Amino acid sequence: MDRLAIYRIYRIVWMSVKFFTQVTLFQRRYKGRFTPVVNEKWERLVTKQAKEYKRTALKLGGLMIKMGQFLSTRADIMPPSFIEELEGLTDRVPAVPRMKAIALLEEEWNTSHTDYVTNLSDKPVASASIGEVYKGMLKDGTPVAVKIQRPDIDRILRSDFRAMKIVIWLAKRFTAFGKQIDFNLLYNEMVDTIGAELNFLQELRNGRSFSDRFKAMPGVRFPVYYDEFSTRRVLVMEWIEGARITDLAFIDANGIDRRDLSERLFQLFLEQVLNGGQFHADPHGGNILIKPDGTIVLIDFGMVGSITTDEARSVLKVVEGIIFKQYEQVLDGLEELRFLLPQADRRILADAISRVVAAYESEELTQMDSFVVDRLLDDIKGIVRTQPVQLPAEFAFFGRAVSTLIGVLHVLDPKVDLLAIARPRVLEWATTQKGGEKSFSKEDLLRLALNAVGPLRSLPQKILTFLEEPTRMREYIQVRDTREQVERARLQTRMFAGTVAVLSLASTLFGVWNEHIPLIATSGFFFLIAAFVFKGKSPK
């Protein structure tokens, strides 16, 4: 392993250890007394951590950029202020020297680049953490975009993934996240999702698949890809002139109707999910172009997510369960989608769902009863923290894609009514699921589930909620007291073992860096002892 890899591993692991330690000490210091003042201190801490992460990511590039984008989608495990800071983390990495990019291009083509393209731009027109795009021209005069993978990105990502394995090992053994997250699954999902971007031939196949699926949709275009010039590390595609979809001056200058444009764009992405299940996972303004005639051009299919037919049916099961108040069915659907890990307490989660539905039906949420809303949100936050609930990677990227797209749509038309646009198509889709047979009709869905019981539907829910509140509170206090006793004993052991392990790990890394064999051996010995103590004294 070379020094660059060791340095990257050291920076990533040390930053993670520091974050884990800060969070653990903060939670222990303020346990059970999260007042508004304490909450403000917590927000300052995680915001400071997010800013440090962003600085490190922009300096190191590689997986750190992609991991930051990945973490910004994980609202189930990351604090809101951390996510908010990382949302501004984009692929703003410096371009590699042009000579290195040309060298890689000619290595892939096994000939001089001028044999295939001419007038290659002096600088990349776009630079990201995985690749850079140059503008050029084929011998026949066709303008093309040439995407070249960054040299050594394979080696950089391999070392970064090694660092992530160490970070995950530490998180599983020295933090409370291990109860909430299947780290092995998370790591595999991260490798699959981010690693797929290294194969430009897969991006070519993705782009061509989208083009085939939506070739009949009017007002939409996709680039043409050139197989004969494309390899795993080089992608050559048609150059399409157009402005960013968020360039309002361009849109207004060409007389394009913003509302119509936003509706067409939303329908395009809705069809991606409902028709085939594969969706563009990074629909920011730079990946969606607009031509002067209003044609939408979708580019960059390196990050693509998918929702299978079975997953779509599980989503429908969740929807049906909520509508007809079959909360066990809701949990079955969430478990099929891997939102719940096997050890989740279904009774607590079913109760939480029923309370949210009851509050919605009784119009307490829409009336903004601050006491009810605050209590409900506190309960939900507590459940998410204590229950093994996670957001699978494919749905995390789907959520990020939806969030990004909605931001673009609101730039185009702040008053866009997404529900009005989506409702007819979603209902049509819902009635054709379950093997092509209708599960319920539109009339059943709208009339029976929403309107049939009329305004009296909230009264039974309010009575039941009132009667169940003392029992719920008593159960909650019992569970909380038991959990605090166990947690107190566990934290004492973990803090001792964790402190020794952190210091030993830092010394080991320092010894590796300086090739100090005695220091490596001694530090490694104490690290293993700490891990053994931790494992032996952790509650089963």
UniProtKB/TrEMBL annotation:
Spans traversing the lipid bilayer: 519-536
Family assignment from sequence similarity: Belongs to the protein kinase superfamily. ADCK protein kinase family.
Keywords per UniProt: Kinase, Membrane, Transferase, Transmembrane, Transmembrane helix
Cited SUPFAM superfamilies: Protein kinase-like (PK-like)
Protein name, UniProt field: AarF/ABC1/UbiB kinase family protein
Xref: CDD domains: ABC1_ADCK3-like (cd05121)
Family annotation (Gene3D superfamilies): Transferase(Phosphotransferase) domain 1
InterPro entries in alphabetical order: ABC1_dom, Kinase-like_dom_sf, UbiB_kinase
A Pfam family annotated for this UniProt entry: ABC1
Keyword tRNA processing: no
All copies of domain ABC1 atypical kinase-like, residue ranges: 89-331
Entry coiled-coil feature ranges: none
Molecular function terms from GO: kinase activity
